[in-house]
Amino acid sequence: MNLTEVADTVEDSGALRIHIINATENQLQRISSQLKLGLNPTEMKTVQAYFTKQGRNPTDLELQTVGQTWSEHCFHKVFKGTIHTPEGKIRSLLKTYISRVTRELNPPWCISVFEDNAGIIEFNKDYAIAAKVETHNHPSAIEPFGGAATGVGGVIRDVLGVWADPIACTDVLGFGPLDFNHENLPPGVKHPMYLFRGVTAGIGCYGNNMGIPTVNGAIYFDESYVGNVVVYCGCIGFLPKTKYAQNAQKGDILLLAGGRTGRDGIHGVTFASTELTKESEEASRPAVQIANPIEEEKLKRAIIRIRDRSLGSGITDLGGGGLSSAIGEMARRFRCGAHIRLDAVPLRQRGLAPWEIYISESQERMLLLIPPENAKAVLEVFDEEDVEATPIGELTEDGKLKIVSKGVEVANLDITFLFAPPPVERIATYDESQHEDATPPESHDLEKSLVRLLASSDIASREAVVRTYDHEVQGHTVLKPLHGEFGGPNDAAVIKPLDESWRGLVISCGMNPQYGKVATYRMATSAVDEAIRNNTAVGGRRIALLDNFTWGNPEKPDRLGSLVQACKGCYDSAKNFMTPFISGKDSLYNESPLGPITPTLLITAIGIIPDIRNAISLDLKVPGNPVYIVGQTFRELGGSQYFRLKGIRGGSVPEVRFPQAKDIMDTIVEAIDRRLVVACHDISEGGLAVAAAEMAFSGRGGLSLDLKDVPREKTVNRNDLLLFSESNSRLLVEVPEKHAKEFESIVTDVPHASIGRVLKDDNFLVKGLQGRPLVTADTRELLARWNMGSEGGR
Amino acid sequence: MQHWKARVEISLKPGHVDPEGETTCQSLRDLTYPVKSVAVSKIYTITLEAEAQADAESQIKEICQRLLANPTKDDFTYQVAEAK
Amino acid sequence: MNRDEIRVCILRVAGTNCDRETKTALQDVGMTAEVVHFKQLSTKENLMEYDMLVVPGGFSHGDYVRAGAIWGKKLMATMGKDIRRFMDEGRPILGICNGFQVLIEAGLLPQSQGVSRFPEAALASNSPSGYNCRWVYLRLETANTSIFTKRILKRTLRIPVAHAEGRFLFEGKKADRQLEELINNRQLVFRYCHEDGEYADGKYPINPNGSLYDIAGICSPCGTVFGLMPHPERAYFGWQSPNWTMETGKEPAPYGDGGLLFESAAEYLEKKF
Q: A793 pLDDT exceeds 50?
């Protein structure tokens, strides 16, 4: 089918009218694919019915607008649709599990959740924190530098899109093994090393250039990331509560500000909602966006000035779907229509069709709503900051999206229609296979295992990457990603956002794709536990969570089933920890010729610390101090780094046990507040052995440990299991000798034991269950091994 | 006034360390290519108005001296031709 | 003049991004600091109303061409006359990180023969290459004329660097002579060193960027123009230090080492004007 057979021009507007009213189902589908609308047969028929009722055929711009608005990327059909599971029907994953936590807990400190560009929570009585984490997997797989940089740029704009000043960035990444054999790469898939370098450079470039510290993150390596790279970019913002203005009304001006509009990024959202194939590279080149952080820096300055003078009535960023999605969302939000003059949009190049202008995803653009009486003042601010800003239309009361190009109407759609796609129904199946105890025979050279784990890809130091990110700019980073003399791995970042207050915010994350390979419910509960544990370890509390899912094709029932179970895990654990979800984002369809991606859930935790002077770092402090373990160790090494080292798949993934898990976190916070803790570190990948080694080599002294008293389930009857189990809700705590009694009185209701002492010299000694020495190492040597792993990436 | 097109190359003066070049060189060797050395330079394509070739060339020279090159570490070369 | 009467102009252009924390530090020292857009200063406002000028860190104009190059040339082209007068009257100019790069590119440092039309030195790409954010030790060269160091009574300071282009160098053939001149003129202010004060001697990461002679900061012959790659404003408060938690049982020290530079400038201005 040639497009000219079903289209004619709409006067001199540059738009085409597409004849769909009389089209057959077959023709409809061909129109959808030829125009790259990404609409399925049901959706095309819904569109056809709508226009039949209007008595006219749609323009290409109207069809593209529908395609963008209904895309998975913009509308989250999977999370909002109906799913048939073996346990019955779920009407919306989002409402049934994720946002339900928040609804049920209903904390008074949640200001705006799941409705705006970023979640907003209270910081203190005058200020609020905004937080958002984005996925940018697909663009980064095609062009790693630009994909990652625009991922950061996009999430910063999300935060600007709630009038918040960005104060910190985070990044969590997943790559294939860096030594992956070139010959085994399928056509179109780029080598992990190339992706690694490009992505990390892109992230550093954007954050550094904009002067936003990148303070927290993680990098994981997994075979399933060869075909699908994982790029999560987060941004935390800060705003005075009274300056959060989303109250636009009819007559307010739609002002497009920032970079000019070009052909870049067209169909980015439909591209993100499909699987990558070997043709993806060529086909999606136009979907690659070009980053210009300095433009966004100027934009930020202007927006914050406009905010501080309360000149705007609404704001949103231009991300996926470009103008089409930003304008539609704004009109719906303020229960208005919108009239747009497309000719007013400043263009970077000539020859763009109206629909291209309307859905282009050119970067560094924001849409502001301005009451007419403030327009002059706002335009002056933009002018002073050398940012182009152009009124392109206004909100109206007719509930219609009307767009004019060259004096001709090229769109006239009901906003309500635009936001009522036909419901999606999908089928999910559960993986019922039993995971047997896959425990290998007992290993006795545990020192060697420890050393190998410290240098292994998921545990080794990230210094080579972290130092390329500015984590100090803005001068408010209290606990840094690399701590102290030896650059130890702190559990969370602490930020002091106000000059006049000691109150701080705590940023941490939790993720473990190895668990996702085995059981996604437990992966989810573990990720929530880990994020909260990391936050708790430095003194964070009153925690809010963000969820990011990276999954395979949800149209395949097994992938959807594992997603449902992960969502359930999110609900169960967050509800029990009493930590609401405030924002989230998903990236589905991560499949490549090498197969689906390992289900990968990132949980980001944002906590509060009342006084940053009481923040706790991981490094051991004073020789002679006792070191306690809090929490119990179970025989659950499925997905553990130890099993991975031994080449074992399967086994039981760590569970999170309530109510104990929450009691442990609360207890640690109480001990920190009573100033009984001088060092604290969470136990995660690599278990007790790795956590203890990290504490030891991050400080100036050493550590001796005795495993005999470690609280454990009976079946943990071997030294290797005890050292390397990754059971959740466990932390190591250094307590000043003089406070030991008081500390014990606080932890009395949760499993705990004094298991070691800080040493003056550099020894790292572990005595086993039978009283024999298991590890006799030098902390400087362990540090060197941990640092050596870091060289792999550079 | 005629339009002229200049191709300007800014490169490091001999003897100066070129960390980007060295790092790239090492990476290529790591990928087993028999690379001896890598030098990084920057190319600008500039279109400008001038009465005559000589005039265009002298402006380009000044542009190089004034902004595009730092004489402490950079060399520059340029070719100017009529823009089509 | 009283300290609170001292007006400091923190200049910014597109891409400047360390202005806020620089202002916080200067205000805390007791001076009155304002962040002023370059456009404003070159049109509406007057540089001569200020007592000190700070060119803060960031990526001015994206650091395209070379770090600091575009702003350096613009600065001299649009307000060179004011800058010269400002300097001649002994009013201090401080360039931090990107600001140091700007001062070098503007020909305001090292000024061995007065303001130069072309840069006399360069802050080249780091060696090893790439952006590097880390805390370093700086050794104060006691025989220096800088007015920014008079309050520093110890030998070494701990301050972070964060840059990709900070390798100080002179032109190959002339380097030895220029370096000698820098030392003889007492323009050498800070050199990268070990914790105990021993010079880095080019060793990475003690010298984080491969700078010639471990140079981290230099001043003009008269000492009022000063540029350095490390960020004193990020080492102003005690809690900004990377290991303040080492001091167990104690709260972080109220101040870090960076404030000494601003304190020195304030004292100089109090006395001079």
A: no
Contact (CB<8Å) B73/C169 = yes
User: Which among B17, B65, B68 has the least Cβ separation from residue C127?
Assistant: B17
How far C133 CA sits from the closest chain A CA (Å)? 5
Pairwise CA distance, residues A215 & A170, whole Å: 6
Picking from A731, A214, A207, A780, the residue whose alpha carbon sits closest to that of residue A482 is: A214
For residue C195, the chain A residue with the least C-alpha distance is A485
Q: Does A138 touch chain C (CB under 8 A)?
A: no
CATH for A136-167+184-203+231-425, options being 3.90.650.10, 1.10.1410.40, 3.50.50.60, 3.50.30.60: 3.90.650.10
Residue C120: active-site member: no
Q: At A512, is the secondary structure helix, strand, or coil? A: coil
Concatenated DSSP letters for A691-734?
HHHHHHHHSSSEEEEEGGG--B-TT--SHHHHHH---SS-EEEE
Q: For residues A259-288, b (16+ Cβ closer than 10 Å) or e, as one string?
A: bbbbbbbbbbbbbbbbbbeeebbebbebbb
CB pairs under 8 A between B and C: 54
**C211: pLDDT confidence band, cut at 50, 70 and 90?**
very high
Q: Which position among C97, C193, C219, C263 bears the catalytic label?
A: C97
Q: Which residue of A has its CA nearest to C67?
A: A209
**Contact: B73, C128; criterion CB under 8 Å:** no
Span A596-623, average pLDDT: 96
- A197 is written with which tokens? 């370098």
* pLDDT confidence of residue C248: 54
| Chain C touched by A305 (CB under 8 Å) | no
Q: Average per-residue pLDDT in chain A?
A: 93
Q: What is the largest CA-CA distance in chain C?
A: 55
> How many residues would you count in chain C?
273
CATH no. for C3-272: 3.40.50.880
**Tokens representing C2?**
């009283």
Q: Give the model confidence (pLDDT) of B55-74 as tens digits.
A: 999 999 999 998 999 988 89
Q: How far apart are CA A389 and CA A254, in angstroms?
A: 10
Interface mutation target, options C239, C241, C248, chain A, most CBs of A under 10 Å? C239
* Residue type at position A539: G
ipTM above 0.90, yes or no: yes
**CATH 1.25.40.10 is right for the domain spanning B2-82:** no
B72 and C105 within 8 Å at the Cβ level: the answer is no
In this structure, the strands spanning C132-140 and C156-163 are antiparallel
Nearest CA to A723 out of A761, A685, A680, A753 is that of A685
Active-site residue, selected from the candidate residues C21, C163, C219, C231:
C231
Q: Which fold has domain A3-74?
A: Helicase, Ruva Protein; domain 3 (1.10.8)
Range A633-649 average pLDDT: 94
Please give the angle made by the CA atoms of B2, B3 and B9, to the nearest 5 degrees.
Answer: 135
Where are chain B's structural domains? Answer: 2-82
Residues 6+ apart with CB under 8 A from A696: A620, A702, A703, A764, A779, A782
- DSSP code for C202: T
Residue C240 confidence class, pLDDT cut points 50, 70, 90? very high
Q: Parallel, antiparallel, or unpaired: how do β-strands A408-414 and A400-405 relate?
A: antiparallel
- Judge: C131–A211 Cβ closer than 8 Å, yes or no: no
Distance from C-alpha of C185 to C-alpha of C145, rounded to nearest angstrom: 8
**Residue A732 CA to chain centroid, in angstroms?**
27
Parse chain C into domains and list their residue ranges. Answer: 3-272
Q: Do C105 and B17 touch (CB under 8 A)?
A: no
Residue type present at position A331 = A
Q: How far is C128 from chain B (nearest CA, A)?
A: 6
- Hey, which residues does A549 pair with through a beta bridge? A586, A601
